[in-house]
Structures are given as structure tokens and as C-alpha cells.
Amino acid sequence: MLPSLSLPSSSTGLATRSATTTGANMTGGVAIEVEGLNFSFGEGDLTKQILFDVNLQIAPGEVVLLTGPSGCGKTTLLTLVGGLRTVTSGRVNVLGTELNGATQGELIALRRKIGFVFQLHNLLEFLTAAQNVETSLQLHDELSPAERKERALALLDEVGLSHRAQALPAALSGGQRQRVSIARALAAQPQLILADEPTAALDSHSGRQVVELLQKLARERGSSVLMVTHDNRILDIADRIVPMEDGRIVVGGV
Ligand SMILES: Nc1ncnc2c1ncn2[C@@H]1O[C@H](COP(=O)(O)OP(=O)(O)OP(=O)(O)O)[C@@H](O)[C@H]1O
Ligand SMILES: [Mg+2]
Fold first, then answer.
1. Which pairing describes strands 63-67 and 240-245: parallel, antiparallel, or unpaired?
2. How far does residue 75's CA lie from ligand 2's centre (Å)?
3. Ligand 1 pocket member 47 (CB < 6 A)
4. What is the reported pLDDT for 252?
5. 75 lines ligand 1 (CB under 6 A)
6. 115: closest CA among 37, 198, 55, 29?
7. Is 72 a pocket residue for ligand 1 (Cβ < 6 Å)?
8. pTM above the 0.90 mark?
9. 32 and 110 in contact (C-beta within 8 Å)?
10. Mutual orientation of helices 204-221 and 174-187 as an angle, nearest 10°?
11. What number of CA atoms fall less than 13 Å from residue 110's CA on the CB side?
């Protein structure tokens, strides 16, 4: 158990956003709206279509799990929604930004509103847990260095790791590293969290803890979550499960 999980979010000193405020700058209160999205890798004869007419809507504050066999296009869809790949067909609106035709500047601004949690947690090995969390606040000029430090420590406390704040990633367990990456993803109070198999490297107990934590923190802040998972044991944390197969969303699925 993580004793600090019972702390109210106000104990972090962070403002809690309501779902209503979160939706204020979104089209019709929708966090993610994907319509008729096709996507291919490669060019000319080597073109391989990966996504076919994908349609998906996610409301502010909704927790959605994306499931499906290996290679069906889940990560590709997640990276398109996150503005990490260029959308060239169909319509993708994320937090009010139209991604088809978006400028680099618009994409950078969008990425700052998103918390990313990846399977291999991408922590910087030469920075402590606290410094890793702080990196996501670097672009937030409105915070002083002291405030960034304070916020990073508050987030580590929320994920039950205040006692490991000064540890380097190499000295942390897999579950602890993944909790640091969740703290980092949430530090900037993102309106949307995109997670790609955050439990893949963890045993079932730590995996469940990590996902419950992500869900709880997202709920407290009214953030939407789109999470790719193969892990059947965590399906119950979702508001909705979106199954994918061969680059298509299975209509009439769960
Ligand atoms: N950069 C790339 N260039 C070319 N093909 C790619 C690239 N990335 C992925 N693919 C291909 O696109 C398809 C979908 O890959 P994707 O990573 O989206 O699958 P996935 O559903 O996330 O699978 P997994 O569950 O194994 O992570 C696969 O056939 C993969 O080989
Ligand atoms: Mg993948």
C-alpha cells in the first residue's frame, strides 16, 4: 500500500482543476476528437497503411483504455494524438487544437498540455527522482525555481515516494521508476494524459498500484486519460474500453 495515497490533493498545494474549466477551450467540451483518420508509414511502393478510418471521441475527465493485438496500431494512434507524428488525413482535434495542418509552434504548445507516460519510463539517469519530475516544469516560466522544486516534491509525495526524492533512477525499483514518471507527467497539471503500456515492465501488484494512482490523480484534476494496455487485470479502472484490430477501432466493442 502507498500510505500517502489517502492525502487529499490539496495537500500538494496544487490548484485542482474541475472538468468544466478543463473543457473551456475545447470544441464542444471534447478532449479528443478523431474523425476519419488514416495513417501510413513509408512512401511510394513501400507505403504501408497502418490506421484505417479511425473515429474516436474522449470527453474531459474520461479514462479510456485502448486495447488490441501487437502491431494493430495503438502506439501509432497515441503518438498522432499527442502531436508526436504529423496528421495528414482526416480530422484530429486535441484540447482544441486541430492537428491536421498544425504548425510546429502549435504542436509544441499542445505537447506542453499533455502528460506522457511511456513503458520504458524515459527517466534521465543522471538526475534524481525530484529533478526528473522538475524537468516537466522547465517551460513553465510563471514558476520560480523554488516553486518548481516544491511542486516536484509535492508530486513525489502524492505517488508515495517523498523518501526517495534524492535517489537516482538506477537505485529505484521498476514500480518506483514508473511512479516517478507518473509524477513527472502530472506535475505540469496536464489536461490530457497519454500512457503507452505503463504497466508492461511491472509485476501485477505494482502494475495495478501504478494504474490506480494514475486514475486517481487524473480524476482529482479532471484530466482525460488515454492509455494503451495489454493487461486484462486493469480493465476495470476504465470508464470505457476501445478495442482495436488491424488498424481499425472495433465498432460495437466493449
Ligand atoms: N516508424 C515506423 N516505420 C514503419 N513502420 C512502423 C513504424 N512504427 C510502427 N510501424 C508498424 O506499424 C504497425 C503498428 O505499430 P504500433 O507500434 O502502432 O503497434 P502497437 O499496436 O502499438 O503494437 P504493440 O502492442 O506491439 O506495441 C506495425 O506493423 C509496425 O511494424
Ligand atoms: Mg505499442
1. parallel
2. 4
3. no
4. 65
5. yes
6. 198
7. yes
8. no
9. no
10. 10
11. 25
